[in-house]
Amino acid sequence: MSPFVEFAILFLGSFLIGAVSALIIALILKKGKKSKTIKINNEIAMMILCPWISYLIAEGLKFSGIVSILINGVFLVQYVDPNLSKTSRKVMKAGFETVAWAAESVVFLFIGLGVFAVDNTFEDIGALGIIAACVLMNIARAMNIGITAAIC
Description:
Elements: H1 3-35, H2 40-60, H3 65-80, H4 86-117, H5 121-151
GO molecular function, one term: sodium:proton antiporter activity
Subcellular location: Membrane
Pfam family, one: Na_H_Exchanger
């Protein structure tokens, strides 16, 4: 089988797993919203667990878990978010923002610590090089945040 066909099968399988799992959650929440049987705790748990379960199924079937999570997230926002209560939406937004901030902090911490893990970094680059790198990183980060904020 050609690599293109293998890629197409892998992508489509991952796409279907992510989409179907999100659509199942959307259907459950829509029916639960009409009958008023789903509690806020259940809504939040489903929103958190759905991408993880999608990942596990995709990996178990030898598809791409990352593609499955990506597609799952797109479908969750499009089809599940309108069926959530306002309280659940606020809790989910605050929770995901907190996790994103913590993950970003850990990444930058590891990047900062990685500078000192390389032998003779300071001697090779010098103080001016390290200061310039820090300034350029902050400029790039500010530009990235500014552009992203303008788009959103």
